[in-house]
Amino acid sequence: MSRIGVNEKKFYRTLEEIFTGAKIEGQGGFLNLIKIKHDYYQKVISQFAKEVEEDKVITNDFREEFFSKLYTFFKKYFNESGSIFFTKTANWNNVYEKIYTGQDDIVLFWKTHMLYYVKTDTIFNNLFIEVEDKQWGNSYFYFDVSKLDLKKNNEKRALVYEFSKQINASEAESKLGIKLTDNISSAINVIEVNYSTHGKTTKIENLVRKTGVRDESIYKAISVFEKQNKVDFFINKNAKKFLTEQLDIYLHQILLDDSNEFSLSRLEQIKTIKLYAKKLINFISNFENELVYIWNKPKFVLNSEYIISADLISSDIINALEKAPGYAKQIKEWIDLGFIKESASLQDIINENPHIPFDTKYFPEHKYVILSQFDDIDSALSGRLIRSENYQALNTLLNKYKEKVDLIYIDPPFNTGNDFAYVDNYQDSTWLSIMNDRLQLAYQFLKSTGSLYLHLDERADYYGRILLDKIFGKENFKREIIWDIQVLSGYKTQAKNYILGHQTILFYIKDPQEFYFEKQRQPHRKEYLDRFDKVDEKGRKYFDGRGSIIYLEDAIKKGKAVGDVWYDIMSFQQNATSKEKMPRCTELTQKPEELLERIIKASCPEGGLVLDFFCGSGTTISAAHKLGRKWIGIEMGDQFEDTILPRIKETINAKGHREPCGITEKVNYSGGGFVKYYELEQYEDVLRKSEYTPADSQINLFSKDPFESYIFFSDQKYANVIEVKGNQLFVNLNKLYSNIDLAESLANILGGQLIVDTEDEVKINVKGQIISFSKNINKMNEDEKMVLLKYLKPLIWWGE
């Protein structure tokens, strides 16, 4: 084969690899995506090859350079997942660069600034592993990931390993396609791999018993298997613009090369490289655009339930709940949460726990009866708890809550590399992408009187400051708060360095003319109060060192205005040094409720709305609830079920394994509340459920230039829920999910307030106009269905 042939082959092979990304095995929406990409690639690249063959400029003399230049260009901008950004450019190691423009003095620039961050995941593939053991003999494993369901978003989920079967060497080669270089007489142990659900763990003792292999060898095999390729998944926000700009720079470098001869034929060759590179850029960017549409598509609300305290439920409904089939499960939950020790009559339970919370998931037959007690559901709710990746949630909720939030407090991952209950070992560039996109959305949620507090440590505080200056404006920075978390003892104090004793909270506002702020006060220190050493004729102590008399009684009553160094709120580390004083809820969180109490009282009026979209263990929403503020909490992963839901139920009851704790007694909180919780459809769900036309059919729909055509324009996506028979229109959302909350989904899309939600009817207040829908869509007349589809369109069909 000629050298030209080698370059050409290398170009096509590499382009396919970088476009579809690394090989992935298992199940999930990303696999569906890669199959679609691969299918379209095969069809379009054949057209590309045909046009190259017919081009008179791409002769034998130029052909080698043509493919070499294309290979060199495209190879630079793709990573293992097929994401498009700076990966191997000349400055690819320089994450940050300063860029000077006419509009901004200095703009922070980072490698992934043009990307939506989707998730970090490990690409696991089927793997044959031999573990050497001179004493007991070698053991053999085949890790099967064919049923592995890829993680959504950035959930922290452990892998679970289960024994499947034992096979011999010939079966391994014939059925599994394993190429064995040695003669193996021992059995090969097939281990099925999946992600953990509901706390499921690997039982090593079971693997030992079923495989007959020592546990040490099993651990070694698992360790080798888990050392596979970790990849960040991104979506380029504007792939066409980015790649076209980079192509112009690349071609400009070629033109500036002193070795080039600037003949007309040479310029024609460079124009030809540009022509075909742009064809591929157009095709690639079409696919990337579809991912952008899916990422930014508002998401369906799923699995909605309510938590409501007993004092908000009528006695008739209470009596009905006690007789319901799910009542026994509710009793078990109350016992598990420490509300009661054993089952008793419901009236006795309520007498002891007047605010005990009922969860409607146990009472589906009474759910809408409970909701019928409220004339305006949204107004009656204390808070909303949403299980979702937070960008998807913020983007979905924006219409409903734009300029309605009083206070945002977030305590995001600090980029420490440690492994808390969520993944937080983002590299700097990825962390900046995550925070930039979410803070830009967050800004739109705030009222003109609103404030944002961003809680960081020394690893990220300066990044956060630059991002917030860019989004909120430098003039809207109010204060850098230093929270004294001084550790008095322990291994951290032994470091050969100054002892780290603080974290940073950045305080920004939206409008300097209107922002709400209530100055907070704290008791004076003893050293100050000791200065009140004079006594007047009435026996009152006073101090006159400042030219005016201040009485001790007034000083104590008024207290001292809180400054920007907070030394009076005990941190988790400080509490840990005195376990007898440690509040019971500190086992859940690094942040005490007292910290949030100060922030909420200062920047959110009573009855105002607090948002935390890095909800963590739920400290923000628990404190907001106890302080009489409404709240929205967003979190993803198993801790939603395992940590936050139990905590908010204990907060509502004001009793439990961990309650009373935090500020419960300090603010005289006694319990009660009405909370809605639900999940949102996720990006991975959309990838999994979207219906795309097979490439064989779709190719015929292309215009004269298949590279320019938006190939997904005519795809069904979610439109398969709509069926037309004659003059009748049928809508079946159950084709997507059986548990869609139509009322909440529509309220989010329309930006309205959910007023009524019954088994039959939905009423939403949209800027004073009441919009009603029947719950049974197919009982609507055709005009009503068309109106409904108009509102549902962003949810079921995108990319127009």
Automatic annotation (TrEMBL):
GO biological process annotation, one example: methylation
Domain named DNA methylase N-4/N-6: residues: 405-643
GO molecular function: DNA binding; N-methyltransferase activity
Keyword annotations from UniProtKB, A to Z: Methyltransferase, Restriction system, Transferase
Cross-referenced Pfam families: N6_N4_Mtase
GO cellular component: cytoplasm
Keyword field contains Methyltransferase: yes
Entry similarity comment: Belongs to the N(4)/N(6)-methyltransferase family.
Entry protein name: Adenine-specific DNA-methyltransferase
